[in-house]
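Input structure tokens:
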């Protein structure tokens, strides 16, 4: 059972206005309860972290939010605006992306043989109106739309430090830049919520620090909310406003970084890992 006393309210500059929340979200694979009644809230314009040992259920949580797995039980409520509520449960991944949830993956998933710019253009795809006919006929309207998306993508790459490599093949970028490109591609969908699955995996200390700055930059410039799965505790403690801790599919703690750092259940879950 989750100890309710761990659920403290520490709003700081946030006003308790969730953009995304789950209620008793559960996911069962055969006999395995990968998610067990998870209640999690992402406040508007915040950075919320989800941490926990390997196999805790973090990626499964993202897969349920983004329509990859239909959750076994529970609710997912998305509020793109304060007075608009959308139930995401049961929606297909494309629809979830269109509505404003974008994600990156634990293992980089770029189109290796496409250029950096083309990778970002693919991220724009969910917003294109032309469709297949327009693309084939290449009428004036389609060309204008294409040009607008190229400009938009180029601008994103400039703003997030990849302008020097727009025409490089994705596979030729250094690893850290590939991670950055994945995030920029997610931004091309113009999300309201950005879900990052272990973005610091494989990065060195300098790259991880740069990533921390990038995440904060994105939050403030794009006015979006971020849910961050991450193992790098330095990054998590510095970047997040609120941290949720999961172990064996259950939330065992939630609080501000200073609270989580000293939480005995959290320390135990992590020490028990090795
Ligand atoms: N498609 C699936 N089928 C069966 N079991 C799965 C599937 N996806 C994840 N799991 C299991 O669910 C548990 C949680 O996995 P995961 O969400 O990847 O953990 P984390 O991201 O926290 O490391 C693990 O025991 C994993 O083996
Ligand atoms: Mg994972």
């Amino acid at each position: 059972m989750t100890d309710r006393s761990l659920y403290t309210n520490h709003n700081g500059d946030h006003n308790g206005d969730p953009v995304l929340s789950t209620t008793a979200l559960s996911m069962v694979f055969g006999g395995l309860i990968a998610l067990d009644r998870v209640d999690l809230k992402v406040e508007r314009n915040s950075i919320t972290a989800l941490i926990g040992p390997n196999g805790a259920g973090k990626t499964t949580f993202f897969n349920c939010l983004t329509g990859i797995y239909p959750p076994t039980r529970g609710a997912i409520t998305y509020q793109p605006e304060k007075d608009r509520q959308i139930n995401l449960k049961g929606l297909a991944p494309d629809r979830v992306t269109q509505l404003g949830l974008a994600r990156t993956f634990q293992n980089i998933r770029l189109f290796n043989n496409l250029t950096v710019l083309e990778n970002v253009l693919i991220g724009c795809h969910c917003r294109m109106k032309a469709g297949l006919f327009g693309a084939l006929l290449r009428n004036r309207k389609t060309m204008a739309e294409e040009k607008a998306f190229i400009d938009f993508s180029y601008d994103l790459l400039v703003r997030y430090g990849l302008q020097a490599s727009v025409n490089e093949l994705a596979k030729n970028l250094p690893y850290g830049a590939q991670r950055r490109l994945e995030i920029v591609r997610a931004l091309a969908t113009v999300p309201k919520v950005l879900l990052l699955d272990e973005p610091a995996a494989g990065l060195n200390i300098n790259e991880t620090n740069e990533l921390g700055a990038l995440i904060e930059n994105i939050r403030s410039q794009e006015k979006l909310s971020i849910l961050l799965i991450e193992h790098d505790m330095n990054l998590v403690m510095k970047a997040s406003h609120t941290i949720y801790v999961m172990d064996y599919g259950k939330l065992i703690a939630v609080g501000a970084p200073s609270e989580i750092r000293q939480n005995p259940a959290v320390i135990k879950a992590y020490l028990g890992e090795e």
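The pocket of magnesium ion (ligand 2) is lined by residues 58-59, 106 (CB under 6 Å). The first helix runs from residue 58 to 65.
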